[in-house]
Amino acid sequence: MDYDVIIIGAGPGGIYAAYELTRNNSSLRVGVFESGHELSKRKCPIDGVKVKSCIGCKSCSIMSGFGGAGAFSDGKYNITNDFGGTLFEYIGKEEALRLMHYVDDINMANGGAGTKLYTTANTRFKTICSQNKLQLLDASVRHLGTDKNYVVLENLYSQLKDKADFFFDTPVRHIEILQGDDGTEYYKVITDDGEYTCSRCIVSVGRSGSKWMEQICKELQIPTESNRVDIGVRVELPAELFAHLTDELYESKIVYRTETFEDKVRTFCMNPRGSVVNENTNGIVTVNGHSYEDPERQTGNTNFALLVSKHFSVPFKDSNGYGESIARLSNMLGGGVIVQRFGDLIRGRRTNHKRLSDSFVIPTLKAEPGDLSLVLPKRILDDIIEMIYALDKIAPGTANDDTLLYGVEVKFYNMEVKLDEHLETEHKGLYMIGDGSGVTHSLSHASASGVFVAREILGQYA
């Protein structure tokens, strides 16, 4: 074998798997294959001056590379089983939380020390939300910030680079299952630059690898089930409007059941004093948000997503395809991300450059003013409008005319791969972890899944 363990993907799942493997068994030969760049070379060309919008890089530095799509996120680690994935269904609630705390300890030891751990436990806002038909989910939230998150990743890479072989800008094309003389399965990983064998393979390709994962599961005849897609907008408003929530909780996961359709709408990825950013997934430009720990890099605005989940099964089951079609429509109409004032949306008119320039809320992302009602399906748009009015009751001013809505925000989830309690496929020694498996949907859950599988493998070499 070229390697004892090959890890495909250097996002959080792959990183923490490699960390745990090399830390506890220095004799293991570990290879890590990543389609994107190493951390120091991950630079988005958008500078707001010469390059103002996505130019479709061959490898998107925001979505791919060491650290995965979470490298330039605001570094929020939600320690909870209430959201962020279903890892606990495979390994148990106590073990899932224990591993998330273990990852938090690693982050603190590698540059995250001094950052605050927020919690929604025993907060008065649970009562306030309940009184207004909203539900505040329980969680502990470690906020590293985009800047500190980068430092943590730098430190982890400096420890790993001499203990494992990293192959950057090396997308894996196929995985082949081979059989030894004793009948044991082993794996061949095929890239454009060569082929490599291993006795155990960990696949951790994240959300951006959803199409590749679908292809691999078909080729290897691994059963899958369709997963959901989250569709919505990113809201941007003055930071003062949500300060009473973000100062105490930082990340508040709030869920609302709409009266019209009884659909659930939730807040996601709250960024106090942050910035709205573009991201590119499979050639589609969508919107996201970042925030920083450093006060000098903070803005006067807070942004967060409002998302509605859609899950298709029969006869149409391509939830991601549905989300992609909506995102492509937005790109077609706006050349990328569209921004609209809430007041214009409810009046049924398009936001133009003059209305945007007259707005009291200064946008942190240069986006094309437009009309989101031409992009989002009516049901989803009605859900979002109703949620904004519901949030206005606990954060007055949310429904102001100048509140900005960026669209579209789409969270693509991989198909849920059939795995056992070891996160192992039907093929012995082939594991699928992180967001790519459809099991996790967050930094903390993905990282924990990497540690879990690494320990499973370490036990086999003990």
Write up what this structure looks like:
The protein is α+β, with helices and mostly antiparallel strands and 462 residues long. It contains twelve helices and 22 strands. It has an eight-stranded mixed beta sheet with strand order 5-13-14-17-12-20-18-19. Strands 1, 2, 7, 8, 9, 10 and 22 form a seven-stranded mixed beta sheet that branches. Helix 1 packs parallel to helix 5 (145-160), helix 1 (12-24) runs parallel beside helix 12 and helix 3 (93-112) crosses helix 5 (145-160). The protein is globular, with a radius of gyration of 22 Å.
Brief rundown of the structure:
Helix content is 31%, strand content 26%.
* Major β-sheet strand ordering: 5-13-14-17-12-20-18-19
Strand content: 25-35%
For the report, how would you describe the main beta sheet? 8 strands, mixed
Mean pLDDT: 93
The quaternary organization reads as single chain
By secondary-structure content and strand pairing, the structural class works out as alpha+beta
Low-confidence stretches: none
The global form is globular
Number of separate helices:
12
Q: What integer value in Å does the Rg equal?
A: 22 Å
- Give the % helix: 25-40%
Instruction: Report the count of strand segments.
Output: 22
End-to-end separation in angstroms reads 19 Å
List the helices and strands and how they pair.
Layout: E1 3-8, H1 12-24, E2 30-33, E3 76-79, H2 88-91, H3 93-112, E4 117-119, H4 125-131, E5 134-136, E6 140-143, H5 145-160, E7 165-167, E8 172-179, E9 185-191, E10 194-203, H6 210-219, E11 224-225, E12 229-238, H7 239-249, E13 254-257, E14 264-271, E15 275-281, E16 284-290, E17 301-310, H8 319-334, E18 338-341, H9 342-346, H10 353-357, E19 368-369, H11 378-394, E20 404-412, E21 416-417, E22 430-432, H12 443-461
Helix pairs in contact: 1-5, 1-12, 3-5, 3-12
